[in-house]
Amino acid sequence: MNLLGVDVSGACATFSRLCYFGAPWYSVIVQWYRQQRSDHYRYPSSDDDIQVVYESKNYIVVNKDDLVPIDAYDAPSQVNVTQQVKKWFERRETERFFKQEPSPTEQQIEQWSKNLAQKIEDIRYCHRLDLGTSGCMCFARSTVASFLAYKAFIDKRVLKYYLALVQGHLHANYPIFVDVPIGENASSYGRIMCTNDHPYCTYPKAAQSHIDVLEHGEYDGKPASKVLVRILTGKRHQIRLHMNYLGHPIVGDYIYTEPIDYKPHRIMLHARSLTIHTDQELVDALAKDPFLTQFDPKWKRTKTIYPINRW
């Protein structure tokens, strides 16, 4: 990237890393920078740009786009997932109501509007995803459903699988189990995390990940691997840190790579599936795999290591 004839790519990447990670405007910087780097970059421009992958009377699961904040607190000026879900629900319910026969009376419309406003207000997310992570994200449609989902997370009745493209060819004849605690990095400004072998790691907590190597290939001409990760705990940036610990950081991770991998249009981490065993129902959602050549021509598979039809 040139500014007045001077290449400032490295400076922009370094500046973005030095910014406070939790600041509302941080995602705006990253979004702008990614747009400068790649024609392949995609960012939802409206509330309508959302894909629902699971719906019941209690829950809605959507395929969150990368770099889309979860709510207005994370980035007030941007489209956020919570806003998208509520607008989608309002639009869908409105279409259903006014299609009914016979046409509703004014009194019925007034009462329906009040009920709909309450239903929209009750919608809330059950868990979080990192800003740069795409994939399955669950929303509860009521306070009771939200509590039961929370209880399922506490009782470890949740299965979460992620797909990631990582740097280099990861070789393993069997699944890899990583059991490395994660804590906050006291030497960094903002909520930057680190593994417990870091000299400034504070308050480390247990973190376990189960990793299967699916494919070898190249991303933008460099060796890369596609991996399937099941997280047994849910620590902040867990997959990013555990892959970095193995020496295979995630492609496009602008926080935990050395040197900073700022060229890809996104962090190559995707919440592929989500299963929640609640006391009300079994939530089972699957989001499409974005790491295919048809969606991102820079990724080219050269070898299948562990074929799994579902993934």
Automatic annotation (TrEMBL):
Biological process, per Gene Ontology: enzyme-directed rRNA pseudouridine synthesis
Domain called Pseudouridine synthase RsuA/RluA-like: residue spans: 59-244
Sample GO molecular function, one term: RNA binding
Any Pfam family: PseudoU_synth_2
InterPro entries: PsdUridine_synth_cat_dom_sf, PsdUridine_synth_RsuA/RluA, RluA_PseudoU_synthase
Alphabetical list of Gene3D superfamilies matching this protein: Pseudouridine synthase
Family: Belongs to the pseudouridine synthase RluA family.
Protein name: Pseudouridine synthase RsuA/RluA-like domain-containing protein
Organism field: Rotaria socialis
